[in-house]
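Appendix B. Chain record.
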Amino acid sequence: MLAEEINLGMRVRYPRTGTTGTILRIEQVRGEVFAELDSTNLLYRIDYLIPATSAEKSAKAIIDDAKKVIEREKKFASGRELQDAWKATDQSCEGGG
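Structure tokens predicted for this chain:
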């Protein structure tokens, strides 16, 4: 991003780590412009930041998705299909080596 494109309070993402946050302050150090993010309180060079889009999932959405997967796995584990699969194996553990 260019220095002209950033504003305080803007949501941005640092793609190298996936860190997302709101810009708290903008600072120039040795000729480079940095932005401090509220999520880490660290400075990031603004030319490495990209605008955060609303398409990114929120933490709540990710947790909800995980809960659905866990419920589906619990249902499968308690069902007849898994029991039948276990009966079809000799229940040995071979290391393959």
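Further analysis of this model is presented in Appendix C.
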